[in-house]
């Protein structure tokens, strides 16, 4: 005996197709893995507001990621010792090349990385607000609870295709603040390639110079304007000596009141630039304001 079959409702099919398309476009499918470096927030940023408007608490298992949406849950595994922990995404970042996640102090402690500048980690996306948890039997906690797993041996990182990501400007820190890391003196391997150490001015010496045009991003944070190039270079060397990255120099026409402007950038949206300007003032006493980058 055969029974008639009926096609599923068109509205249900359309909903599933839209969900799958959205996940594919964002590259945020539950179960996806990512390998890179992790660092953690500085203790003095406890109580600060993140890019999502959440108050950061160093005692919670929370983290920042550039693309995962607010309240996503992620398993982070320390590839040096095999320890792992489940965290909740509450902030955007980090914006330093090679780093893929910024962890709270408690999460860093669970992973055994306190005192380390960065450690290699593997991320596994467990759930997002619009996707079901990876394991329905043990859904990820919100707020999160620690999940520490000891492995017999460190895991080797799986190959990962590099994504074309434009790095956002931030100081290169030992420990990072939410979204915008702190500029603290790094180890001897830090600031590799700058060759400036902790220099504060454009004094006599030999410098490697590479000029490149910048056509990415729409906004920046202007931190200085000068009539002569040497004064602008003094500020650039000072910023590099404090381990800031992505420093732009805008040369204007000879008729302008100020011919050289020093900018930290770039940012895709104005809110991110404003958030960064506020962080510069609060954390480092650097005054800046958002500008539209010249085209």
Automatic annotation (TrEMBL):
Domain SPOR, first and last residues per copy: 213-293
InterPro entries: RlpA, RlpA-like_DPBB, RlpA-like_sf, RplA, SPOR-like_dom, SPOR-like_sf
Protein name: Probable endolytic peptidoglycan transglycosylase RlpA
Any one biological process term the GO annotation gives: peptidoglycan metabolic process
Keyword terms, alphabetized: Cell wall biogenesis/degradation, Lipoprotein, Lyase, Signal
tRNA processing found in the keyword field: no
Family affiliation: Belongs to the RlpA family.
Organism placement in taxonomy: Bacteria, Pseudomonadati, Bacteroidota, Saprospiria, Saprospirales
């Amino acid at each position: 005996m055969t029974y008639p079959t009926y096609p599923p409702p068109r509205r249900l099919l359309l909903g599933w197709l839209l969900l799958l398309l959205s996940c594919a476009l964002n590259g945020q499918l539950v179960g996806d893995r990512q390998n890179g470096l992790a660092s953690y927030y500085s203790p003095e940023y406890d109580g600060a507001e993140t890019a999502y408007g959440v108050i950061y608490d160093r005692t919670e298992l929370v983290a920042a990621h550039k693309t995962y949406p607010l309240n996503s849950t992620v398993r982070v595994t320390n590839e040096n010792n095999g320890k792992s922990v489940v965290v909740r995404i509450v902030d955007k970042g980090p914006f330093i090349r090679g780093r893929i996640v910024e962890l709270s102090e408690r999460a860093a402690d669970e992973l055994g990385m306190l005192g380390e500048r960065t450690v290699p980690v593997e991320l596994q996306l467990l759930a997002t607000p619009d996707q079901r948890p990876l394991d329905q039997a043990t859904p990820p906690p919100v707020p999160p609870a620690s999940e520490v797993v000891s492995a017999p041996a460190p895991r080797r990182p799986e190959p990962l295709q590099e994504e074309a990501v434009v790095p956002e400007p931030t100081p290169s820190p030992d420990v990072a603040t939410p979204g915008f890391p702190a500029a603290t003196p790094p180890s001897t391997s830090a600031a590799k390639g700058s060759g400036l150490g902790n220099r504060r001015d454009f004094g006599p010496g030999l410098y490697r110079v590479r000029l490149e045009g910048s056509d990415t991003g729409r906004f920046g944070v202007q931190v200085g304007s000068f009539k002569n190039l040497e004064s602008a270079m003094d500020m650039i060397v000072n910023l590099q000596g404090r381990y800031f990255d992505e420093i732009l120099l805008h040369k204007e026409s000879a008729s302008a009141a100020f011919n050289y402007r020093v900018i930290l950038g770039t940012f895709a949206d104005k809110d991110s630039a404003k958030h960064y300007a506020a962080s510069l003032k609060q954390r480092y006493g650097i005054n800046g304001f958002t500008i539209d980058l010249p085209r």
